[in-house]
Amino acid sequence: MLEAAPEGAISEYLSAPLIDRSRDIHAVPLLSLDFETSGLDASKDHIVSAGYVAIEDGMIQLSTARHELVKLGGSLTEQSVVIHKITDDDVSAGLPLDEVVGNLLHALAGKIMVAHHAKIELTFLTQACQKLYGVSPRFPVIDTMRIAKQWLERRNKEIEQGDLRLFNLRKRYGLPMYQAHNALSDAIATAELLQAQIGHMDSSQNLPLKQFLS
Amino acid sequence: MEIELQEIRDFLAEVPPFDLLSEEALNSLVRKIGIRYIRRGNALPVDTESPSSLFVIRQGSVSLYTAGNELYGMLTEGELCTTFCVDEGRNTFEARTTEDTLVYSVPCSVLFDIVAKHPEVVAFLKDTPHRRLNDAVRSSQQKASQTATLMNTPLSQLLSEDIIDIEHDSSIYEAAVKMTEEGVSSLLITDAGKLAGIITDRDIRSRCLAKGLSPDSLVSAIMTADPIHMSSNSLAFDALMVMTRKNFHHLPVIDDGKPMGIVTATDLIRQEGKNAVHITRSISRAETVEALAEVSKMIPDLQLQIVSTGGSAEHVGRAVTAVSSAITRRLIELAEMKFGPAPVPFAWVAAGSQARREQSSHSDQDNGLIISNEMKPEDAGWFSQLAEYVCGGLDACGFIYCPGNAMAMNPEWCQTQEVWTGYFTKWINTPKPKSLMLSSIFFDIRVIYGEKKLLTKIQKKISKLTKNNQLFLALMTVNALHHRTPLGFFRDFVLIDDGEHKHTLDLKHNGIVPIIDLARIYALAEGLTAVSTIDRLKQAAGTPSLSKDGAANLLDAYEFIGELRIEHQAAQIKKGEKADNFLSPKQLSRLERAHLRDAFKVIQTMQESLSQRYHADRIG
């Protein structure tokens, strides 16, 4: 796939050395990512904004935090305006999609993606890569929602509606409530949730990366 | 600045000293933060190789331990752990999470670069919370010492360096020469270093010259033998009270039989205040309860005056207690005039805040009567009359009846020495919730009038029974821990500072009472006789019950909270309101809030360590 990819961020991402799947999770560089999108269908809808922050040496590094709005031709649906409080004016002030995705891939190179309900991030990012570069890389991902689901299932807990929402899971770990609802604060919130999840696992033994990958 | 980091920035902006940072500095600080989630029971920093960092507790709590593994302090939400950014802290303390904790961290070097332009922030960060509190207390104490008044000055401060005395076998002539040389109007007469008597100019005139006694006669022939005296730590106010009552002008000051000097009425009046002189005169001349009640109306003003001249909470407590005790004594004298002399010796004891000398203008009364065991059944009537009269008088003077009925007019607390000894023995040996409550009132006890010996004997017995009595002390500790500091309050306050928050702090029950309770337990554990909280803490410092640092921190906390309280009350008195203990945090500056939080933390830490010491958690 690397050969097929154009020069730039995508090839930088693809050429970064693979991370050993047996490596201890604490030593794996991670990038917590959240997209706000105009809808749920990657074939029709588009990325409105991307927020991400790196976790290095077990610490969420705010110096790496980025929040980027995508400049689009089309107009936003009313629903996404309500949820994300992003207006057309904001979006017109954003960056072109290729720059946003390019910056993201640059940040993601050599790291493992972390997302809550990662399906959205995965499909929209793959779709964007296909559209921009003509390739669909496979992104290894840690999904905090899936970890939560497994954790609850393993304890035979009934999962009720809403239990797996980021907000409710954070409450379960006593993490602070963030008021803002946007891509970056959700990415930070997800990164904190993952740390709490890891913290509550048996730390006496190695926690290999593969155990976390979806 | 990414607008999305604003939430974290807003959080930091509320955490002193970052509230002092410029917008720009705050934004760059946020950008340098690392966030880490740490399970409870883990050491901080997690990574020992990482650069020394400042930690801000975002959620959860962290405890600091000394190298000896003694709990030193506890940090909760919105608080800083600066330990690793001060030179002496790095190797002195260990930090461990006591709950699952989310911390923000910034390497110290990066932090100090960012705040370099804000010297007050740097100073705050380099200081420990305990030292900060200490500094705050010291600076206001300096203010206070410049405005000492008769109400708060011990006699020791009024005595001159040289003690002027003469041996009892000297002649009157020699004494007169010495007085002339020294330019004094009175002279102490000693016998082998002990005080034997006193002579004044007037004695030489009326007892020697007017009587035609030879100046070669011994000075002991004209001296007043075994004169009334006071110790050097007595208050100038009390001395003035005695002199006014007995109508003399010279008072020897004696410590353990050893003469320390003489104070004169002129010294005292020169020292200060027509207010104090006026109050003492009015009290000793009062012939009725109504007259005393009139005098007591000056107490709020007295409190206000002391505060406005920079007096501390201790000063207010001592002054108000001095007045209430003088009123008590006068009431007893009036009762004796009314009902005749006491049939047998007795001691009128004050309990609670009056005993600790910590009253304020709105304190209630706690007292009792210890009567000699020689009392016959028919004497009981006299004592109940006395109690009714004095308690009623105190109530009329604003020291309202004790809601818990811990007063001499309650027959239970108007008993012989033998019965009292029995009470204390029972409370200590078979503690119950009610008796623990009574213990916390009557273990603070002091004779206001009458035979001191009646109490001394009981106190010796108490101290024998309580010293190292683990079970009793454990139960007292459980009881004391009912008064908790409202640290969580600040958590809310940090987050919600709009007009909605109507909560107030009860400075007495959440701040002062917990320290009083702690001090009482230290005193009981160590068999100390001190009654005032400050004296107890000072005496307990360095004993197995209380480290020197612990004592110093508690003293600072006590003084700081006490000061907030008297200032709050002074403001109320000024507005013509009734003084109370309820403070709205809105009345506090940000810095005062930070200090108050430090003070509460000291209390919490000391409660925690006392609880661990007596395993109070297993009993409660």
Give a written overview of the molecule:
The complex is a heterodimer of chains A (214) and B (620). Chain A is α/β, with parallel strands linked by helices. Chain A has a single domain (2-207), classed as 2-Layer Sandwich (Nucleotidyltransferase, domain 5), CATH 3.30.420.10. Chain A has 8 helices and 5 strands. A 5-stranded mixed sheet of chain A has the order 3-2-1-4-5, sandwiched between helices. In chain A, helix 1 (9-15) runs parallel beside helix 4. Chain A starts with 8 loop residues before the first helix and ends in a 15-residue tail after the last helix. The relative contact order of chain A is 0.20. Chain B is 50% helix and 15% strand. Chain B is elongated. Chain B folds into 4 domains: 3-127, Jelly Rolls; 155-236 and 255-263, CBS-domain, CATH 3.10.580.10; 276-466, Beta Polymerase, domain 2 (2-Layer Sandwich), CATH 3.30.460.10; 476-618, Four Helix Bundle (Hemerythrin (Met), subunit A), CATH 1.20.120. Chain B is an alpha+beta fold and 620 residues long. Residues 142-147 and 492-501 of chain B have low confidence and may be disordered. In chain B, helix 2 runs antiparallel to helix 4, helix 9 packs across helix 11 (274-285) and helix 22 packs parallel to helix 25 (590-613). Chain B contains 26 helices and 20 strands. Chain B has a 4-stranded antiparallel sheet with strand order 1-8-3-6. Chain B has a 4-stranded antiparallel sheet with strand order 2-7-4-5. The longest helix of chain B has 27 residues, at 313-339. The interface between A and B is medium-sized, with 30 and 27 residues.
